[in-house]
Amino acid sequence: MLTKLQQLIRDGEGLTVEFKRCAQELPKNVYETVCSFSNRYGGHILLGVEDDGAVSGVAPEAVSQIKKDFVSAMNNAQRFSPTLFIALEEAELDGKTVLWCYVPFTSQLVMFGGRIYDRAEAGDFDVTHSPELLGMIASRKQGAYSENRIFPYVGDGELLLERLMPQVRQLALSRNEKHPWAKLSDKAIMQSAGLYQTDRVTGKSGYTLAAVLLFGRDEIIRSCLPGYVTDCILRRENLDRYDDRLMVSCNLIDAFDNIMDFIAKHTPDKFYIEGVQSVSVRTKIARELVSNILVHREYTSAYPAKVIIERDHIVTENWCMPKRPGKLDPESFTPQPKNPLLANFFINIGYADALGSGVRNLYKYTKIYSGGAPELVEGDVFRTIVPIALSDTKMSDKMSDNRAMSDKKYRDALLAHLADKGEISASEAAAIIGRTAKTARRVLLQLVGEGVVAATGGNRNRRYKANR
Question: What percent of the chain has pLDDT over 70?
Fold first, then answer.
């Protein structure tokens, strides 16, 4: 990325590049630039660089606070609508610290401080009171993103808000204990995440396709997207057909759990010490693969997304509207989310990381997992291939051993929590062990079967209590 930043500085400011002096604190107009980039084509912001390209740098003692202030503003619904998940990264140029970020073009009209900004070569312009320019922005966004389509006839009754919103809040809070969603109503969360919108051209208001995909009941998803499905296939012995298959056509929150569990069921795991914690490398890789096929996917196509597990590799496929066809290079890769609303939502609940980090994570953990490197090819079909290194003769035993080790670790963690707090839900358990709710329920039910834990309540409100 260092070479990329140096090239941006050499080329100078323009429609998609902005330099800002930033010594001790964020310049006030940086948020206007974030807003205008979001509404135009996206772009790079470099802090600590003068207008002429001279690197003046950010004071080292101010870096931490500047990064915190920036992220706080991006997630503040009183300042940005919708809120954005963008973070500043550090780089050293000419012996000085530069902070930078890439602002993606979003599918929704972005406002800062109740005003709307657009980008031109000469800078950022307030277009709040220009119907003609606002219409041009709306036209650009509607033509680029299908997730933004409004379905006025979809009401709260067609969405699983009552069941899924508690899980969403818990996931967001486990990532950030001060997450603003903790104090927002369900409707306010949907609005702040861009899942409930008003089309400024037609005047129609309603839930978007992104909302239907994230929270919709199965029947409403089929109504809006008849071809939506993710096909999970194990093809290890029967190469002509399959050894196991799972067709996933539910909401994306449940779909994420189901596909993660399918991969865990049929692939070996490997544990790696990261800092002071032992992490599941398979889970790290699967998370990137699954979030990619669910978030960066063109849903207007009936082409089914696929997860194919074979003898020595995992392949994922999803339909794509390619921006830069060909193999992705992690060194020069610039993130361009296909569905920014879905991407931002997944980032908020911890199902994905900040834009661009997913590709880097995939390369990092694949090397640890198998000693190889993933292959990512962008075309009409986006294809990712991750090698599996273990031989077939060792795979079954290895998977069984790893699952037993994992279950013991999960049991110990949940029993420790129950000893302290007395009770727990499946979604709370999932956040504690860092796995899906389905895995958490499986471990909890094992404890129920052993008489160590008692289950109370119906499916939606089930709690698990320690037997004293």
Answer: 90
